[in-house]
Amino acid sequence: MEVVMAFVVGGLYAAAIYMMLRRSIVKLVIGLVLLSNAANLLIFTVAGMKSGAPPLIPPGMTVPDGASADPLAQAVVLTAIVIGFGVLAFAVVLIHRAYEVVKADDMDQMKDTDR
């Protein structure tokens, strides 16, 4: 399963970089979303994709018994999702304002800052 996820993560990173290198500002935002999702999947894949019970420790024991899921990767990805959404919201507002000023979606036409 990790091999398939490695190819999926690689494909998402490739698509994100391709979209971010386009001239359209909307494609740049789509590339940011893909990059965020690729990073989240990479964290899950590196942490090990084990299915198991929640890591609850029974009374009188020091470690969970049996297979348990890693809660650290889940917490990091949850935090990354929130941060990614904040960055996306900021980028959309910034791009909307830039489009109102320049009246163009092309990055080459946004080079002029004298307006």
Give an overview in words.
The chain is mostly helical and 115 residues long. It has one domain. The protein is 64% helix and 0% strand. It has three helices and no strands. The chain has helices spanning 2-20, 25-47, 71-102. Helix 1 runs antiparallel to helix 2 and helix 2 (25-47) packs antiparallel against helix 3. The chain is elongated and about 65 Å long. The termini are far apart. The mean pLDDT is 86.
Counted up, domains total 1
Instruction: Profile the largest sheet.
Output: none
DSSP strand (E) fraction? under 5%
Low-confidence runs (pLDDT<50, min 5 residues)?
Answer: none
Helix-strand string: HHH
What distance lies between the first and last C-alpha atoms, to the nearest angstrom?
52 Å
Structural class by helix and strand composition: mainly alpha
Helical proportion, percent range: 55-70%
Overall mean pLDDT stands at: 86
Computed Rg: 20 Å
Number of helices: 3
Describe the SSE topology.
Layout: H1 2-20, H2 25-47, H3 71-102
Helix pairs in contact: 1-2, 2-3
In short:
With 115 residues, the chain is an all-alpha fold.
